[in-house]
Design goal:
Strand 1 and strand 2 form a beta hairpin. The model has no long low-confidence stretch (mean pLDDT 94). The longest helix is centred in the N-terminal third of the chain and has 27 residues. With 157 residues, the protein is an alpha+beta fold. The protein has a six-stranded mixed sheet with strand order 2-1-6-5-4-3. It has a single domain, classed as Nuclear Transport Factor 2, Chain: A (Roll). It has three helices and six strands; from the N terminus they run ααββαββββ. The chain is globular and about 55 Å long.
Length: 157
């Protein structure tokens, strides 16, 4: 049987990784630019693939991107992440999960997008787990809703 300390450390790593995943969603939905950018390592890659596509590398570009993203109270949406599978290997981790974004459509909640996240994270020198790579594989996207990002690389709007 694995020693108790190792099992507890693994549980703590899983919990801190989930904190990063959840913090990402709360920050983007409410416009907390600093908290959202802090979910990523300095050299991180955020890429969207599938029905919409773009790629952003590095914190400066991530900050510029999220500053153009809609947020409450001007635009109501909720980013949900479910069914995370986390594999930790020392100071590196891989996670795959499903995502969906609920959006306000004239006062009615609708699913605006869904797909799968494929994440690579690392424990940074300050002890925080941050994304090194976050790939959002978009499977379904409601193109009839207003864009989530003003002048988005995906839409050009």
């Amino acid at each position: 049987m694995e020693p108790l300390e190792a099992r507890v450390a693994r549980l703590e790593d899983d919990r801190e990784i989930l904190r990063t995943l959840h913090g990402y969603a709360h920050a983007i939905d409410y416009g907390d630019v600093d908290a959202w950018v802090d979910c990523f390592a300095e050299d991180a890659l955020f890429e969207v693939r599938g029905r919409i596509q773009y790629s952003i590398r590095g914190r400066a570009a991530l900050r510029e991107f999220v500053a153009r993203h809609t947020h409450a109270p001007e635009a109501w949406h909720k980013h949900f992440m479910v069914e995370p599978f986390v594999d930790v290997d020392g100071d590196a981790a891989a996670c795959r999960s499903y995502f969906t974004v609920l959006r306000d459509d004239g006062g009615a909640p609708v699913v605006g997008i869904f797909g799968r996240y494929r994440d690579q994270l690392r424990r940074e020198p300050d002890g925080r787990w941050r994304f090194v790579e976050r790939v959002a594989e978009v499977e379904v996207w409601r193109s009839d809703l207003p864009p989530l990002v003003v002048s988005s690389p995906a839409t050009g709007r």
